[in-house]
Design goal:
single chain; 180 residues; mainly alpha; 0% strand
């Protein structure tokens, strides 16, 4: 029997200059670095672009809300100056739009109430003027009536005095007492 011989491994070494061997690694590292910088650049640019888009959106929404609130404020000033013949333009279906619809409804109700109140005041004023006129006429009639009654009372007093005996006539009859 032949003795067992373990296989032998042979190592073959190639001698490559270090510059060539590491050069490929350096080139790969540089390419990875450039790719990383490009990715970071795209991420930064994307983040800045996203931030600008968000800021633009917030600005537009803010401007729209501010414009609607400014219109509501102007409408309130018009109401303060008793200008009830206008309507706010309702351009949105959000809370501010609902507020504008309610505001328009309230302005209409205030206008109707004010007109009704003005009509009632005119009616009451007319009634008071008519009552004052009637009172003046009654006062005039009462003055005339008082004058007439005063005159009649004076005539009645004179008639009564004429019926009564005079002081001289009463003095002539001693046994007569007259009271009136």
């Amino acid at each position: 029997a032949a003795p067992h011989i373990a296989p032998q491994y042979w190592t073959i070494a190639f001698v490559v200059p270090k510059k060539e061997f590491l050069g490929a690694l350096y080139r790969s590292q540089a390419a990875i670095g450039e790719s990383t910088q490009a990715i970071v650049g795209f991420q930064v640019a994307g983040s800045v672009l996203t931030l600008l888009i968000v800021l633009l959106g917030v600005s537009l929404i803010s401007r729209r809300m501010t414009r609607a609130l400014t219109a509501l404020s102007g409408a309130a000033a018009r109401i303060m100056h008793k200008d009830y013949d206008f309507r706010l333009d309702v351009t949105t279906n959000d809370e501010i739009g609902s507020l504008s619809v309610a505001f328009n409804k309230m302005v209409g109700e205030i206008r109707d109430y004010t007109q009704n109140l003005e009509g009632l005041v005119e009616q009451r004023t007319s009634e008071v003027k008519r009552a004052n006129s009637e009172i003046r006429a009654l006062n005039e009639r009462l003055k005339d009536e008082n004058l007439r009654l005063g005159t009649e009372l004076d005539v009645a007093r004179r008639i009564q005095l004429m019926v009564l005996p005079s002081a001289r006539e009463l003095g002539d009859i001693d046994e007569l007492d007259v009271d009136g």
